[in-house]
Amino acid sequence: MGWRHGIVEQVRALAQSLRDNIGRVIVGKGEEVDLLLTALLAGGHVLLEDVPGTGKTLLAKSLAASLDLSFQRIQFTPDLLPSDLTGIHFYNQKDGEFHFRPGPLFAQVILADEINRATPRTQASLLECMEERQISVDGKTLKLERPFMVMATQNPVDNQGTFPLPDAQMDRFMIRMKLGYPSSREGVEILKRTAGTGGATDIGRTAGAADVLAAQRLCEDVAIGDDLLAYIVSLAEATRNHPEVLLGVSPRGTQVLLRACRAYAALQGRSYVLPDDIKTLLLPVCAHRLVTRKRYSADDTAGRILQELLEQISVPSEEGLEGA
To answer: Name one GO molecular function term (predicted).
Structure first.
């Protein structure tokens, strides 16, 4: 198993350098940063959902600044059109030919700020690029450069002038998470760091495309036993049979959870997945995939259901997992 431990050390070193760099701007939020890095190394996308002023955009920009990747920030508004994102063909009078002008989606890291303020038609223009890493324009399919990651933000409280993301769009996000307010100690540290600076802090780049792609491939070799695979399937099946759930976790949802668990285990310095990895990631990966009978209720019904299932379904023994 020595080769696996060497693999994990490479991923752990990359993740720690990114944690340290982001930590120059973001105070605390270690768990949230790990979730963001999990999505990056698992090839997924992230939806940051919280009230204004909690650092959603700053966290997304900090990760982008830490990576030597092309970056585009898109401010979503009701008048934003799909062609504003994908690009257009325009007629050049000088040579009498049509040329393609790529839109901002042709970058490697996309910050979709306030994504729920765009119309459903514009939101739908993200579906193909998020799932298949390609964009179709005027009958032509153009591949996107990898790694490709979308980080979207939205305010769940202010509903005026917004368009709720459809289930198909939500399913494209590997992880949905909230940042929450800082603790008293963290609040003081934030004021100390930003006093007299206007909140701006420059951070350098610590990793590039080759580093991220290599880490993504290494995470695929993290071991997971058949008993843990069965545990993931059992949790998914339980959501489908729950009386309060209309649509449970799909097979694609279980595949996404598996990828996330492998990346998360590598971030923690392990070459194998533990039951605790599944427990940690079940809510951020699967809660937004459930369609409950109280889907428009203010309470977190999906989160409560998943927490109940974690308590009800027996957890496989951890014996022998390291050698899986």
So the answer is: ATP binding
pLDDT digits (tens, 9 = 90+) for 257-301: 999 999 999 998 888 999 999 999 999 999 999 888 876 555 578
What would the two tokens of residue 276 be?
A: 């605790």
Q: How far is CA 97 from CA 91, 93, 165, 247, in A?
A: 6, 7, 38, 49
Please tell me the distance from the alpha carbon of residue 214 to that of residue 252, in angstroms, as a whole number.
24
| Residue 199, Ramachandran bin (φ over 0: left; ψ between -120 and 50: alpha; else beta) | left
Residue 147, preceding peptide bond in cis (omega within 30° of 0): yes
The amino acid sitting at 216 is Q
Among the four given CATH numbers 1.10.260.40, 3.90.180.10, 1.10.510.10, 3.40.50.300, the one describing domain 2-221: 3.40.50.300
Residue reference for tokens 């668990």 = 261
| DSSP letters spanning 36-57 | HHHHHHTT--EEEE--TTSSHH
Q: Cα-atom radius of gyration of the chain, to the nearest Å?
A: 21
Kindly report the CATH class assigned to 222-324.
Answer: mainly alpha
Please state, in angstroms and rounded to a whole number, the distance separating the CA atoms of residues 77 and 181.
26
d(CA 229, CA 145): 31
Domains 2-221 and 222-324 alike in fold: no
Could you give the angle at which helices 251-267 and 275-286 cross, rounded to 10 degrees? 130
Q: What is the pLDDT of residues 79-108, one digit of tens each?
A: 999 888 988 877 777 777 777 788 899 999
Nearest Cα to Cα of residue 19 among 9, 32, 36, 33: 33
Instruction: Give rounded-to-5 percent helix, strand, coil for the chain.
Output: 45, 15, 40
3-state secondary structure of 98: strand
The Cα 153–Cα 115 span in angstroms is: 6
Q: How far apart are CA 288 and CA 170, in angstroms?
A: 7
Q: What pairing do the DSSP bridges indicate for beta strands 134-137 and 140-143? A: antiparallel
pTM attached to this predicted model: 0.86
Q: What's the confidence (pLDDT) of residue 197?
A: 56
